[in-house]
């Protein structure tokens, strides 16, 4: 493929992407009042204590950036005095969304795979809520 054609294709793709972006800039997906209420609720959860203990079943909140919202995780341990790491170790660390995170809870979850591999990781408890098991349809009799 010649450079001219590549440039035209790339220009077309970038032009469309830019056009799509300008349509949504400064255009909230929902009312600003809803965003404010969501942010205030998040601030309250963040400022409060961790309501979970080892053995609790939890799930990432739907409004958190954590994957697997609605899927069970189990709390393995809770750090009663979590410390936010605010010392960057690599260039660009301070720009990462998890920089300064106050990870106060270690959870285990299964992967989205057929063999159910278990992964453990430290998380911020304010991004989780209690997992509520839904009764199977067969139990509704």
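^ Assign residues to that structure.
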């Amino acid at each position: 493929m010649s450079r001219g054609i590549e440039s035209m294709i790339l220009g077309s793709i970038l032009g469309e992407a830019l056009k799509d972006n300008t349509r949504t800039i400064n255009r909230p997906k929902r009312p600003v009042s809803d965003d404010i209420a969501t942010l205030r609720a998040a601030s309250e959860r963040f400022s409060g204590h961790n309501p979970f203990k080892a053995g609790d079943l939890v799930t990432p909140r739907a409004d958190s950036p954590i994957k697997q919202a609605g899927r069970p995780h189990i709390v393995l341990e809770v750090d009663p005095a979590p410390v936010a790491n605010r010392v960057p170790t690599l260039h660009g660390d301070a720009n990462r969304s998890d920089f300064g995170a106050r990870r106060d809870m270690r959870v285990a979850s299964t992967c989205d795979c057929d063999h159910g591999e278990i992964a453990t990781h430290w998380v911020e408890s304010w991004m989780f809520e209690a997992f509520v098991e839904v009764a199977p349809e067969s139990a509704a009799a």
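The helical segments are 3-24, 32-47.
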